[in-house]
Specification:
Blueprint (H helix, E strand, L loop, with lengths): L1 H21 L4 E3 L5 E3 L6 H10 L3 E2 L4 E3 L8 E15 L16 E13 L6 H17 L4
Parallel strand pairs: 3-5
Antiparallel strand pairs: 1-2, 1-6, 2-4, 5-6
């Protein structure tokens, strides 16, 4: 009984560790772009600009693809919401203080990631090859 309880607790702990490690944060998806800026700009200039504009400002350094490649039959797709966000693509101007260099502030929408199953059609060839090879060996080893 005690061993079963410890196994249950351990499996719950593993589940929560994996769930936390695979969780992704929201990012800023620029329309027409396939890149999501995932790191909020927590610098003093970024925070001040965010307060002045009224929407979150993201750093231009950490990015992710809007649609990831299929790994282990799952992929991440960022879905844009209705909240605005911004990214200073060329950083901040040193001369003007609180301004994006060369008017490089680009607005987008806050996007949240969602895990989506990959289409099974991408792996149909694997099913056909494995079925054909099993059938080939079955016919070859058949006794007459």
């Amino acid at each position: 009984m005690v061993v079963a309880m410890w196994r249950f607790r351990f499996s719950c702990l593993l589940f929560f560790v994996f769930a936390i490690s695979y969780s992704s944060k929201a990012g800023c998806l620029i329309s027409g772009s396939q890149i999501v800026y995932t790191q909020p700009d927590n610098s003093s200039l970024g925070a001040l600009l965010s307060n002045l504009l009224g929407f979150p400002v993201y750093s231009n350094s950490v990015t992710a693809p809007a649609v990831s490649s299929c790994i282990n039959l799952t992929q991440t797709k960022y879905q844009a919401g209705s909240t605005n966000c911004g990214v200073c693509l060329q950083g901040y101007s040193q001369v003007l203080g609180l301004a994006c260099a060369n008017n490089s502030l680009v607005q987008g929408k806050v996007a949240t990631p969602a895990m989506v199953a990959c289409p099974i059609d991408d792996y149909a060839w694997l099913l056909v090859v494995s079925s054909a090879s099993m059938l080939f060996f079955k016919i070859r080893n058949r006794k007459d």
